[in-house]
């Protein structure tokens, strides 16, 4: 694709009212698994071609050692990620699939709640230097078994086994087309099982979405890259943690570390969507928007339904004055992640609604965030003032001051490329400051 096309803004589209309604229902239901509504099973790609929908449930740990849960979850997550590279499949995101972890599963109910035709189940037993993986593909409506297999391997062959499982699942799906499979074989992520073990432990921490555990996750990823300096995904994960710290502190030295790690990750493996997603995130935070867009688009070519990359692409759109397009992309992530909406998505879509002047919907998004950063309280206060709800706005500004007392002196609006957007955010902040001042 020519470079000039990569850096063009996305075409303007109207916001799908069906998806918007689904988003509101998700927030109203607090993402409850008890919802009686089902999601349409048919999913199409950007060209209108029908994609077969599939969900991979968390594999069961049958090692008689609960401490191995992180290892089993990591294998499941890798299989989900690799299946998503198949352009003929629509794969439900990890977070929604894992809502069923530790529960008695009825595949028909899973298919209804996730809106998929096929469900993958499996188990992992790790004993010494051996690993056994069993897996089966089930048609959700009829509960009929389409395919099943057992793999007994040496632990050092774990990546080859994951590749074999992924390709076997894709090939077993009725209507599978060989040309839909991403032809390039996956690069072995690391030759060090020790590094992989630290990486999986770190990912387990990251998936808990606790900011106070970021140092713990960093330590695991740092251990991974010490054991294997060429482990691209571990460098990307470390860069991701630095970006999350940067968003809290706005410390340029932290952003520099994030750029160093993410740049190295892409240099080591330029065709890994996870590495590209983190690199695009760092470029966006650094204000290099053209490079960020090209990087996100490369990642989405590899994994078009990746909810994390789509979230980061949407944030790019918010930063470049395309709030309605950002809303449209984020609403579509509901289809890939119907039972769980990550905090980052709630933040980004809240900002997009705010910049689009849709303050009620912005407030609804922000209110669904547990333990929000100080700036979410300020954004909420600004939206509340716009709606004439001054007492509630004061309460939000007080909460922000408890988290960061110097918030009035921060360079608000720094992330936007357009002066009009910077001024729009700064005007909201001035309203919050004036309301707070007048109250005392």
Explain how this protein is built:
- This protein is an alpha/beta fold and 440 residues long.
- Helix 13 (307-319) runs parallel beside helix 15 and helix 17 (374-386) runs antiparallel to helix 18.
- Strands 1, 2, 3, 4, 5, 6 and 7 form a seven-stranded mixed β-sheet that branches.
- The chain has three domains: 38-186, ABC-type transport auxiliary lipoprotein component (Rossmann fold), CATH 3.40.50; 189-304, Serine Threonine Protein Phosphatase 5, Tetratricopeptide repeat (Alpha Horseshoe); 372-439, no CATH class.
- Helices cover 56% and strands 10% of the residues.
- It is built from 19 helices and seven strands.
- The chain has helices spanning 3-6, 17-28, 69-83, 94-97, 107-114, 158-172, 193-206, 214-227, 232-249, 252-268, 273-285, 289-302, 307-319, 323-336, 343-355, 359-367, 374-386, 390-403, 419-439; strands spanning 43-44, 50-56, 60-61, 89-91, 118-127, 130-139, 145-154.
- Sheet bearing the most strands, described? 7 strands, mixed
CATH class of the largest domain, named Alpha Beta
Count the DSSP helices.
19
Q: How many E strands?
A: 7
Q: What key attributes describe this structure?
A:
alpha/beta, Rossmann fold, Serine Threonine Protein Phosphatase 5, Tetratricopeptide repeat, 3 domains, seven-stranded mixed beta sheet
Write the layout of secondary structure elements.
Layout: H1 3-6, H2 17-28, E1 43-44, E2 50-56, E3 60-61, H3 69-83, E4 89-91, H4 94-97, H5 107-114, E5 118-127, E6 130-139, E7 145-154, H6 158-172, H7 193-206, H8 214-227, H9 232-249, H10 252-268, H11 273-285, H12 289-302, H13 307-319, H14 323-336, H15 343-355, H16 359-367, H17 374-386, H18 390-403, H19 419-439
Parallel strand pairs: 2-4, 2-5, 3-5
Antiparallel strand pairs: 1-2, 5-6, 6-7
Helix pairs in contact: 2-14, 3-6, 3-7, 7-8, 8-9, 9-10, 9-11, 10-11, 11-12, 11-13, 12-13, 13-14, 13-15, 14-15, 15-16, 16-17, 17-18, 17-19, 18-19
